Amino acid sequence: MDRSANIIYNVPAGMTKAQLFTMFELGEGETLSMEDPYNASFDEDGAPVATGYLVKLRKDGTVADTVTMAVNGDVDGSANGTLDIADINMLREVLAGNATFDAVNTYAADVNGDGKVDLADLAALKVLAGIGTDIDGAKEANRKINGKKITQHRKTEL
């Protein structure tokens, strides 16, 4: 987590709200909620979270903290939580110098977690989107967080 920017990064693609919320320990009177980037409440526990979604911690009903999600590879700005050709094309545009990412999407684009956004991330994203060859275990690495297996849901549109 980048506390200075309030970004939770390295979130596996396909992680659901329910899976994400199990990672938080809440104190008395604390609750969590999620909103999409357009500030609409996100109530469905089984749908994948997406880059740009907000997790809000409330203490006795008052917002005490807000963090933004950066989902590995989800960089197309659609807030749909799926990895597909739109994400690949957006990363290609950034790598070619034709577009830039904000901080949240930069974290999301660092698919292999090495601290930089480069062609290795593009290759890993292709694997996660289902159109590349898994040569470095990208799929398995994306399915684990804190030692737990995560079920991956994704839609590939070609």
Describe the structure.
The structure is a single chain. The chain is of the alpha+beta class. Helices cover 24% and strands 20% of the residues. The protein has helices spanning 17-21, 85-95, 103-109, 119-128, 138-142, and strands at 7-11, 30-35, 54-59, 62-71, 144-145, 148-149. The strands form 2 sheets. Strands 1-4-3-2 form a 4-stranded mixed beta sheet. A two-stranded antiparallel sheet has the order 5-6. The termini are far apart.
Features:
20% strand; 158 residues; four-stranded mixed beta sheet; elongated; two-stranded antiparallel ribbon; 5 helices; 6 strands; alpha+beta
Outline the low-pLDDT stretches. Answer: 143-158
Radius of gyration: 15 Å
| Secondary structure category | alpha+beta
Report the span from N to C terminus.
Answer: 33 Å
How much of the sequence lies in strands comes to: 15-25%
Shape field: elongated
Order of helices and strands: EHEEEHHHHEE
Largest sheet: 4 strands, mixed
Number of helices: 5
Q: Order of strands side by side in the largest beta sheet?
A: 1-4-3-2
What portion of residues is helical?
10-25%
Strand tally is 6
